[in-house]
Amino acid sequence: RRVSGGGRVADCATHSEARLTVRTERRLLRYLTPRSGWFSLALATAFLASLLDGLIVVLLIPLLKYLFGTAGALTAQAPSRLEDVVEWVLGPLIAGATPGQAAARILSLLVVGLILKNVFGYLDPYLVNWLEQRCLFDLRQDLCTSLQQQPLAWLGRQQTGALISRVVNDVGMLRGAIIGATATLLREGLLTVIFL
């Protein structure tokens, strides 16, 4: 069956649902804008945790080289671009050091990196959950204010359980849609880029 614009009914329904979803997301983001600084901090902690996660894996290459005494490249081929970057970054740290001293310096850098990664790894979900809870609190406040402004006749026709379900359960289902999806997309996307 076709509609007046030439498209199919199912296509129009899907398109209108997509517009509704985008409109709903924009309305939900209104609750995030007063806390945009906190949201930026949460994204920064996710970025730093992912970056440090990749750095720790990369630091294992020179550590193993100095621990097991292989002074050359890891393979018989020419050094990779990653090894060149690691040598450029670690060069001033391990210049003139014996293999044991170089391994100790890299190991201490690895421990500091692990501690920082764990701190940022803790702050990331903490900030995301805090922001989600604050946004849901504001959304519930607005919903309760809207319900209190409804006429008594309308409230008399509604079932109490349905109204409570709207305030508690339906708002709770939006929890991950506001912030969590964005933070997860950034975190996992960056980890994919780092490990490739």
Task: Label this structure with key terms.
196 residues, mainly alpha, 7 helices
Order of helices and strands: HHHHHHH
Number of helical segments with 4 or more residues = 7
What is the radius of gyration computed over CA atoms, rounded to a whole number of angstroms?
26 Å
Number of β-strand runs: 0
Note the main sheet.
none
Give the terminus-to-terminus CA distance.
47 Å
Rounded average pLDDT: 77
Helix content: over 70%
Class inferred from helices and paired strands: mainly alpha
Strand content: under 5%
Unreliable runs, pLDDT <50, ≥5 residues? 9-13
Q: What's the overall geometry?
A: rod-shaped
Structural description of this entry:
The chain is 81% helix and 0% strand. The radius of gyration is 26 Å and the shape is rod-shaped. The longest helix is centred in the middle third of the chain and has 50 residues, at 99-148. It has 196 residues and is mainly α.
How is this fold's topology laid out?
Elements: H1 9-29, H2 36-68, H3 81-94, H4 99-148, H5 152-157, H6 160-172, H7 175-195
Précis, in short:
By secondary structure, the protein is mainly alpha-helical. The protein is about 80% helix and about 0% strand.
